[in-house]
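Dear support,

I submitted the protein below through the web form. The confirmation email said the job was done, but the results page showed an empty box. After a refresh the structure appeared. I'm attaching both so you can tell me whether what I see now is the final result or a partial one.
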Amino acid sequence: MSAEAADPGAPLRRRSRPRIDLRRLGRVALLGPVSRDRLPDAIGHVAEAHRAHHPDADLTILRRAYVLAESSHRGQMRKSGEPYITHPLAVTLILAELGAETTTLTASLLHDTVEDTEVTLDQVREQFGDEVCYLVDGVTKLEKVDYGAAAEPETFRKMLVATGNDVRVMSIKLADRLHNMRTLGVMRPEKQARIAKVTRDVLIPLAERLGVQALKTELEDLVFAILHPEEYEHTRALIAAAAGPDAPLDTIADNVRGTLRDAGISAEVLIRPRHFVSVHRVRRKRGELRGTDFGRLLVLVTEDADCYAVLGELHTCFTPVISEFKDFIAAPKFNLYQSLHTAVVGPGGAVAEVLIRTHRMHKVAEAGVVALGNPYAQDHAAAPQTEPSDERADPTRPGWLSRLLDWQESATDPDTFWTTLRADLAQDREITVFRTDGGTLGLPAGASCVDAAYAQYGDRAHTSIGARVNGRLATLSTVLSDGDTVQLLLAQDTASGPSPDWLDHARTPAARIAITGWLTDHPDEAKPTPSTMTSVDPGDPGPAEPAAPERSAQSTAARTRSGPRATGVVVDGPDAPVRLAGCCTPVPPDELTGFVVRGGAVTVHRRECPAVAAMQEIGRAPVGARWADAGGPESDAGCRVTLVAESFGRPRLLADLTEAIATAEAAIVSATVEPPSEQRVRHTYTLQLPDAAGLPALMRAMREVAGVYDVSRAQHPAPAG
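What the results page shows now:
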């Protein structure tokens, strides 16, 4: 938190409030008299900004905090020569302008006292209470003397854990880093670059996730200026050249004001300039910039319904660019952001982007969690709470933060934690998927069923074998979309573990750390990939050696041959040979229908067999067929049936399936395992049963084998007649 010196050439701030002369305030803090019955002059600006958001705030505690901070930091100077007290004052002013409540401002004034002075946490607790003490402790750095090179990552770990209990910790840290970045100019270039990179990789993504756009955008511009000075200066020149009284957005803004006024909609229409990084991104995306690319129109209204009324008028009176429309009111972003986004074509074909939101939405869009005031106040705690994983209902503990806190416990090594934290924060979009039990899971965009499994079940997810996404069977590699419903399927064998292939599909640190840990602990027990599973010989109780391609073709052909002669079936018409179709292998009490094929024989199918519809489409007349009173094929032959088992690949799957078949006293006539597709394996068994009545029990037994998600009668096409 120790801030480094001021930079007179820092980028201009976007706020309308005049820049505070911190050097003058510092002198007042050191030399000016302070009356006991009023606030010190040095924090008059803080009090003014605070009262603008909280008119009834009690400023007494702020005066006491300032007195302690000023006296404890007295004699300390920043590298620019400013009194050190100017730093906590500036940090507190940033938070006050965003609307932070009194407890946050009190902790902000004191945030460096425990780290840089003789003040102890016990003293802070005694004078200001547990809440302020917790916030101050949360942002206090760990000593390099104790932690060495691990001090920075472990400090962030400590801060994130504290943020998990109180998001105001991170609010103070972000404001602290913003002022330090504003005043980084006298540092050595290599140190400026190091601090800027950490800001870019960690703190800017955290500001985005907490919805504090006012801090995020300024931090982005400051980092841009340090890490890419030439591109920054080029962008600055473009923005300066575009400024002027005849800017295209001014004309469109006037037209929008007139349109809304004529429609009787009370709205404030503002031109919102893009910050430097935003302009740079647009230029990289589009190449040559348009005059309207340097800003956007912001329309502020009172009620949610007014947002849609404004949208309707704009889309009626202007030509809308439909591809630019987004509704973040009905579906808020994971960081609390709400707004309608659209774009319209103005005079001369100029395209202007438009943001439509209420004043309340705008405050939250700028200040994020800071705009919530004290989210831990008694009235908030008494409000009914929904599922903890529902980040929109409980913004004080969003889903991304819960995930981060979960996986950091497994990343015991500081380097692993630091690397994984940066990778996790680089994922800049979130999705919400629904569990079948009614709960939700917050995941990063691009997450797969592997990530969902570990998010829901933790280490139990090692036994995952597949999933159902929106009711349809899916592999673990399936990428999820926002709003999907996912049901994870776990094997009954708790000793099974993940495949190394899962790492290719895991986006979340929790999943990657858990999978890597299991594979490290079980080097010889990882699941084989499904490509190791191929055809098996009839009756073989375990996996076979890989089959030659021609053998697989023979097996495929064999399964389509007509079944045995069916003397237990009676068909209408002249006496003719009767055969059971191999495509559906009917058994009693299946309903039957037959067709005359070449040679005068009648092939009998189950009525629901796809081949029946195909025969009728080509004009084949069906022949009535039914089981003889004696029931089914000759008793000495039993009945023959072909079953298809759909499963996920795992070790010993074939052995378990053949064991289930043998237990039902069925004989395997032939068996084929098709080449795997996306971790799913299809087994086809032609079986001889002693009695058709045992078929339902056999199919149930096969479905109960771990990894098998469906068993059905064969429905492959019949051979040409």
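Response: this is the final, complete result; the empty box was a page-load delay. The CA atoms of residues 79 and 626 lie 98 Å apart.
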